[in-house]
Amino acid sequence: MSITAKQNPNRCPPHPGEVIEDMLEDMNYSKKAIAQMLGISRQHLHAILATRKPVSPEMAARLGKLFGNGPGLWLRLQAAYDAWHAEREIDLTSSSPSAS
């Protein structure tokens, strides 16, 4: 029997930066060293960790190679985060279909 956890739809999925931050706590590298390994600036890494920048497909590939888990995880995390926010920002109540 398979049990799947159901996420609370009112709770925002984690931004990939939050997950990276958690993973970095277990590593013995500075954020500067991680940024160098990823081939990005410290500022870019900090913007992702602070959830100010999204994880692009290229960054997902870099993260996947660094952590050994492939780009898919990072792309899915970013997509879930973006979709959750878009769902709350889009309001079609004032839109009405135009009569043809």
| Silhouette | elongated
Radius of gyration: 17 Å
**Largest sheet data:** none
Q: What's the tally of helices?
A: 5
| Order of H and E elements | HHHHH
Distance between the termini: 52 Å
Q: Low-confidence stretches at least 5 residues in length (pLDDT < 50)?
A: none
Mean pLDDT: 90
The CATH superfamily title: lambda repressor-like DNA-binding domains
CATH architecture: Orthogonal Bundle
Helix/strand-derived class? mainly alpha
* CATH domain fold name: 434 Repressor (Amino-terminal Domain)
* Number of DSSP E strands: 0
Q: What is the share of helical residues?
A: 55-70%
CATH class: Mainly Alpha
Counting structural domains, the number is: 1
State which percent range the strand residues make up. under 5%
Pfam families: HTH_3
GO molecular function: DNA binding
Protein name: HigA family addiction module antidote protein
Keywords: DNA-binding
What does this structure look like?
This protein is an all-alpha fold. The chain has one domain (16-86): lambda repressor-like DNA-binding domains (434 Repressor (Amino-terminal Domain), Orthogonal Bundle), CATH 1.10.260.40. It has five helices and no strands. The chain has helices at residues 16-25, 31-38, 42-49, 57-67, 71-89. Helix 2 (31-38) packs across helix 3 and helix 4 (57-67) packs across helix 5. It starts with 15 loop residues before the first helix and ends in an 11-residue tail after the last helix. 14% of the residues are buried.
